[in-house]
Amino acid sequence: MRRYFKLLLLILLCTSLAGCRLSRVPKEEDNNLFVIGFSQLGSESDWRIANTQSMIDTFTNAKGYELIVENALQQQDNQLAAIRRFILEEVDMIIIAPTTEEGWELILTEAQEADIPVIIMDRSVSVWNKDLYLTNVGSNFLHEGKLAIQWLEEQKIDTGDEPLKIVHLQGTYGATSQLLRSRALETAVNEHENWEIISQLGGDFTEARGYEVMQQFLYKNKDVDVIYSENDNMTFGAIRALDEAGLTYGPDGKVKIITFDATKKALQLCLDGKIDVCVECNPMHGPTIEKLIDQYRKGEVIPKTVYMEESIYTREDLTQDFIDSRGY
Ligand code: GYE
């Protein structure tokens, strides 16, 4: 009922504000659905599309949920606006996949004051007061980075007197997945005398940016041993640039390619000998979050951090059947 009055107020307000749009029109029969406002950060990658789909497939009306998805197009301001709308609409829960780590304290406090529990998924938020959210479901990004490094160490690439020249393609600056995958590489480079990051290029986790920055780089310098790319889509872009520059890559080529996510397309490229190693980042958060919500609604204590299960793949680990049966 409280929700109904607020919405009426919101509608009256909106009629006087040009351009104001309600993301959700309440229906009387919604009343027994558990309403979740989901602020998804964007649709920048195949990983993200699979992640959004996992949420949609999980939180269905048939199971008693209403999921309102808002795509922020990689802009934190859009996320803040969406979350404020969720608060006004008095949803039962808010789930946030945050763009970057900083800048969440205020909005999370607003949600807390409105008595709306919040779950953080995928990336993390950097806040002092951890009570501002119930749990953070995501990946152990530092561990992912360390798996990639361990693989690179095992290759024992002989570069003679030259250093091992690494091009580092970075995701959205300030996102947990970028910060920790970068940290793993930077730490390893400090520990290996002959490893050198010859360039750090910002690719914003997109294929278009990955292509652009790699293409520009290869105009000036084609002497590359390794590309450490913080997601598959940037890798796809980089591969296009390598093709155009006439460089060979993959297990039988000159440039070794390390990629994160292990989406279907990347695994196929790995099996086809175009990518050396795919470090998995599991985007299927829906079922894990659903279990946690169940526990929470039963009054059980839920863990503050939950990591998804992940693995690492090289050509030898893969079969066509395995790739074909993968959902993303
Ligand atoms: O690796 C990338 C996406 O934060 C884990 O974001 C996520 C990353 C993922 O754009 O593809």
Query: What value does the Rg take, in angstroms?
Result: 22 Å
Shape: elongated
CATH class type of the largest domain = Alpha Beta
**E-strand count:** 12
Spell out the CATH superfamily of the largest domain: Response regulator
Intertermini distance: 41 Å
Segments where pLDDT lies below 50 for 5+ residues? 1-28
Number of domains: 2
Strand content: 15-25%
Number of helices: 11
Ligands bound, unique: beta-D-fucofuranose
Structural class: alpha/beta
What fraction, in percent, of the residue positions are helical?
Answer: 40-55%
CATH topology of the largest domain: Rossmann fold
CATH architectural group of the largest domain: 3-Layer(aba) Sandwich
Description:
With 328 residues, the chain is α/β, with parallel strands linked by helices. The chain folds into two domains: 7-139 and 283-297, Response regulator (Rossmann fold, 3-Layer(aba) Sandwich); 141-281 and 314-325, 3-Layer(aba) Sandwich (Rossmann fold), CATH 3.40.50. It has eleven helices and twelve strands. The strands form two sheets. A six-stranded parallel beta sheet has the order 2-1-3-4-5-11, with helices on both faces. A six-stranded mixed beta sheet has the order 7-6-8-9-10-12, with helices on both faces. Helix 8 (232-245) links the parallel strand 8 (226-229) and strand 9 (256-261). Helix 5 (141-155) packs parallel to helix 6 and helix 7 packs parallel to helix 8. The radius of gyration is 22 Å and the shape is elongated. The two termini are 41 Å apart. Bound molecules: beta-D-fucofuranose (GYE). The site of beta-D-fucofuranose (GYE) has 14 residues, from helix 2 and strand 9.
